Amino acid sequence: SRSPLSFKLVLLGESAVGKSSLVLRFVKDQFDDYRESTIGAAFLTQTVSLDEQTTVKFEIWDTAGQERYKSLAPMYYRNANCAVVVYDITQPSSLEKAKSWIRELQRQADSNIIIALAGNKTDLASRRAVQTEEAEKYAAEENLLFLETSAKDSYNVSELFTMIARKLPLE
Ligand code: GTP
Ligand code: MG
């Protein structure tokens, strides 16, 4: 097997949608009910095995969603190979915020960037306020990968990163 190929991945989205929780689930298989809001950004790495020969290493920048950190985002998405833009399925305004991040990535990031839209907190089904079909339709129109996830229930989290890994240029 070869040494892993490294790719830079950035997470973007409104504060409290669960960016850090998705990363904590992916990297450490843990979840906190009272996670503190990220300050600036956090850096973590994790590998994904696609098959016996192919391992992808993600260098993950988990950005801070609070408005006061917005101007830092270009430092993290510049040169990113992939982006996960997260919204909360119980908060329609967080999907609008996700769309604005996606427009910014489409204008300012690398033209080959792979963008995934993630609708997080599917465990809060009784409070759902964004229908799957609505986000799915938007994602299809914009050529984005799309999955709904729950960092809490560990639903579709490794699938999200594996789906991205499969789209990366592995030669
Ligand atoms: P910033 O760092 O401020 O940008 O927020 P963030 O997007 O990193 O959100 P964070 O991961 O800190 O999660 C915010 C809150 O939502 C925390 O209380 C988490 O426990 C909760 N949370 C995150 N993911 C889920 C989920 O899948 N389900 C539920 N029920 N709660 C979640
Ligand atoms: Mg965070």
TrEMBL record:
<keyword id="KW-1003">Cell membrane</keyword>
<dbReference type="GO" id="GO:0005886">
    <property type="term" value="C:plasma membrane"/>
</dbReference>
<keyword id="KW-0813">Transport</keyword>
<dbReference type="GO" id="GO:0003924">
    <property type="term" value="F:GTPase activity"/>
</dbReference>
<keyword id="KW-0472">Membrane</keyword>
<keyword id="KW-0547">Nucleotide-binding</keyword>
<protein>
    <submittedName>
        <fullName>Putative GTP-binding protein ypt5</fullName>
    </submittedName>
</protein>
<keyword id="KW-0342">GTP-binding</keyword>
<keyword id="KW-0636">Prenylation</keyword>
<dbReference type="GO" id="GO:0005525">
    <property type="term" value="F:GTP binding"/>
</dbReference>
<dbReference type="GO" id="GO:0005768">
    <property type="term" value="C:endosome"/>
</dbReference>
<dbReference type="GO" id="GO:0016192">
    <property type="term" value="P:vesicle-mediated transport"/>
</dbReference>
<dbReference type="GO" id="GO:0016050">
    <property type="term" value="P:vesicle organization"/>
</dbReference>
<keyword id="KW-0653">Protein transport</keyword>
<dbReference type="GO" id="GO:0015031">
    <property type="term" value="P:protein transport"/>
</dbReference>
<keyword id="KW-0449">Lipoprotein</keyword>
